[in-house]
Amino acid sequence: MVLPSENLPRTSSSAATDLFRVGFVHSFQELAETPFAGNINALCWERTLPGDFAEIVACLGNSHEQAMITLDPAKLRALPLSAAGNNARECMLADFHLLSERDLAPVLNCVYAYPRDDRAGPIATDVFSFHVDSAPCETATWLCTYHGQASEGLANDDAQRLVDLPAIRAALLAAYGGFDDAGFQDFLSENAYDLHYAARPHARPYSFGVGSLWRIATAYPGCPVPPSIHRAPPTRPGDPPRLLLIS
């Protein structure tokens, strides 16, 4: 059964905002099989996971050559870990297995740094910008942060598409070199400009929390709900790497 967020106590992943579009479930099966409908475009299975996930990060070492390490199950199993580290590893492998059984394509990453969009232009399209995911057919995005800073969400009512802001739209039209027509819409789509959002004044982003598994709505033809707006957490010097499941 999906519980609307307003009926739940505020926790680490649902603090400081009215999560009008988030539903909470109590099992993986509910998370996988509950349809998005009505106001709900994000589902969360809140969990407190056992184990030492920091040990997995430490075992991988400091990355000076790679911004991200992909951890396939064989590489993860090969890490020499203590009992606490092994408990954490088993949690990650269990999630990987659950998603794989449903013919999804889960990926486990240790993220040291994300690439930034350093192109000159009015919209940066990297993962630090609030955005929605898109697909040509029905699908959803799955996320879990096991260690490090968690992803952030933004209620749709608290956001505005960047391409709809007059100054940004004018700059994009100048870059396009044409009129606000079907070709311009194609230009916005091809560059993913139309997937990025600005937070409205007084908007309160919320954390996805550490350990919780999420399924969030993407933009696809016929999607019954607005896509869920989210971003990678802003990083600061000294922040630990992220252990992340994404599909």
Name the CATH architecture: Sandwich
CATH class: Mainly Beta
| CATH fold naming | Jelly Rolls
Distance between the termini: 23 Å
According to DSSP, the number of beta strands is 13
Instruction: Please state the overall shape, judged from the principal axes of the Cα atoms.
Output: globular
Largest sheet: 8 strands, mixed
Summarize the structure.
The protein is of the alpha+beta class and 247 residues long. The chain has one domain: Jelly Rolls. The chain is 23% helix and 20% strand.
Overview of the molecule:
The protein is an alpha+beta fold and 247 residues long. It contains six helices and 13 strands. The chain has a single domain, classed as Sandwich (Jelly Rolls), CATH 2.60.120. Helix content is 23%, strand content 20%. Helix 1 (28-33) links the parallel strand 2 and strand 3.
Summarize the SSE layout with pairings.
Blueprint: E1 3-4, E2 22-25, H1 28-33, E3 42-45, H2 53-60, E4 68-70, H3 73-77, H4 83-101, E5 107-111, E6 140-147, E7 152-154, E8 159-161, H5 166-176, H6 182-190, E9 197-199, E10 206-207, E11 213-217, E12 229-231, E13 242-246
Parallel strand pairs: 2-3
Antiparallel strand pairs: 1-2, 3-11, 4-5, 5-13, 6-11, 6-13, 7-10, 7-12, 8-9
Helix pairs in contact: 2-4
Defining traits:
6 helices; Jelly Rolls; disordered N terminus; single chain; alpha+beta; 3-stranded antiparallel β-sheet; 247 residues; 8-stranded mixed β-sheet; 23% helix
